[in-house]
Amino acid sequence: MHCRLHHGHTYSHHTMCSASCSGSDTQTNIRLIDYHQVEKAWFASGNFPLLQSIHHQEYPLESGRTAFCIVPENEMSHMLALIVAVVAARAAHVSRRSTGGTQEQEILNELLRNYDMRVRPPPTNYSDPQGPVTVRVNIMIRMLSKIDVVNMVRDQKQLFVTVGRAVIGWFVQFQEYSMQLTFREQWIDSRLAYSQLGYHNPPKFLTVPHIKNNLWIPDTFFPTEKAAHRHLIDTDNMFLRIHPDGKVLYSSRISITSSCHMQLQLYPFDLQYCDFDLVSYAHTMKDIVYEWDYSAPVQLKPGVGSDLPNFQLQNITTNDDCTSHTNTELSAYSNPKIFPGSYACLRMKLILKRQFSYYLVQLYGPTTMIVIVSWVSFWIDMHSTAGRVALGVTTLLTMTTMQAAINAKLPPVSYVKVVDVWLGACQTFVFGALLEYAFVSYKDSSRKDEMAKSNATRKAQKRRDKMDIPASDAYQPPCTCHLYRDMRPSLRDRLRRYFTKPDYLPAKIDFYARFYVPLGFLAFNIVYWTSCFMMASKMYQI
User: Fold this and answer.
1) Which range marks the domain in which residue 386 is found?
2) Which residue numbers delimit the Neurotransmitter-gated ion-channel ligand-binding domain (predicted)?
């Protein structure tokens, strides 16, 4: 390396000079500093007594680099001044480099030097020194699956009702659903602003997931969460990004199973509103305020909710009116109106519409066919006991089995559902067909007994009358005529026999059942479907 020191003019006892170095990897520029005015220079440590009388001045170059020019007061220290100038210039250049990873390291070291993660950031609104930190939230739903209506869970939070001096507790029953989402939080921490640190061309942002444990992070939790985990394959699926103005973006990918309080009165015509809340665990509204992101509070990955077997994701709404009130003192349970802590809350509401076509094929179609099959018993001859009994018992058992299978897919609730009305009516019609045959068989047996008694009485009377006839009148000449009859009834005769009201009471009951039972089932369907759609429209405003 060859360095030359160029002397210049002298102004106010300070010599203007310049230095240039060749043979190095950089072209040194000029910095002329008055030693007596800059006490923090590295060569002012007192270890070089020869330099105590050396003057320095600075002159910025267009390249932005920095160098020191040491101007000696006498010729004897000229060589030493030149060496110090070169060393100082190179050290300053290295410490002020604006490219590469060294600058990010210096920025992070500078930001974390006096940073205290135990203290929340200054308020977002600088006009209010005691104001809260505003945390903006964005959620991207990547997958929605496993809407489990059967798995009843007991909420760990007991509800209490005060009746006199007695406290009665019970558990609320919920169903569950699972989803995978990207959860993003954004806030401003002015302590992390690096735009004013004086670095030339600082980075647009710093992605620093490895220092998450060294920064203040909002203590957000999900009250309806049953189980959750952050994805760790291949590495921890999260990142932390710091912007020059101190804006911090924290994002993580999590899978969560959340509870949902479902109302099943109109099952399967129901809409379910599943609330997904997020609340600060320890900071009240005086410290943290949550807000949804203005541009896109909730995002959906294409295809989410379209592959659910029983539900369709109809809509997602957001609001911030779910303020959580929590009391940390047990004595306050005696007065439910006391709420020492109010915690900011955001709520995402999932609106799930049950797919009726699934239940039309799996529920209403099969049960209707079973009811219709049970009506075949009305058209079978009343004396075919084995056939009618087998048909009635088979349809009844099939209906019972299907009802049990449908109820196994539903939670045991204390109220009546519209599907219970349908299944109960279908089972009633099937059981009614079996009872109808039992009644017809009973009437037929009773009529046979009466006819047998009547025939026995008539035969006895004939025997008595025959004993009273004179012998001369007992002879009857043989009949010489021939009677012929076609034993095969025509189609008209058969139809007339089926559709003509018979005089025999058991046959008359079968005749009426063939027409009035289907009409009764049709009337029930009209009332049932009309009532269901009217109740659904009134409850869900559709």
Assistant:
1) 358-451+482-540
2) 175-355
Q: Measured between alpha carbons, how far is 326 from 323 in angstroms, rounded to an integer?
A: 10
User: Residue written as tokens 């009834």?
Assistant: 489
Q: Do 313 and 390 have their domain in common?
A: no
**3-class DSSP assignment, residue 135:** strand
Give the distance from CA 526 to its chain's centroid: 36
Residues 509 and 420 placed together within one structural domain of the fold: yes
**Mean pLDDT score across all residues of the chain:** 74
Say if residue 376 is in the same domain as residue 348.
no
Residue with tokens 């990142």: 239
- For residue 247, give the nearest of 121, 334, 345, 358 by alpha carbon: 121
User: What residues contact residue 233 under an 8 Å CB cut-off, 6+ apart?
Assistant: none
Residues 32 and 177 in one domain: no
> What's the CA dihedral at 488, 492, 494, 495 to 10 degrees?
170
By the 8 A CB rule, do 85 and 69 touch?
yes
Distance CA 184, CA 495 (A): 76
| 210 found inside a domain | yes
| 241-290 pLDDT, tens digit each | 999 999 999 999 999 999 988 888 898 898 989 999 999 998 888 899 99
CB of 313 closer than 8 Å to CB of 304: yes
Single-letter residue type at 9: H
Q: What is the pLDDT of residues 64-120, one digit of tens each?
A: 334 444 444 454 455 455 454 444 444 444 444 444 457 888 898 889 998 999 999
The closest alpha carbon to 74, from 59, 46, 55, belongs to 55
Name the more confident of 23 and 297.
297
Q: How many residues does the chain have?
A: 542
Residue 469 lies in a domain: no
Specify whether the CB–CB gap between 330 and 249 falls below 8 A: no
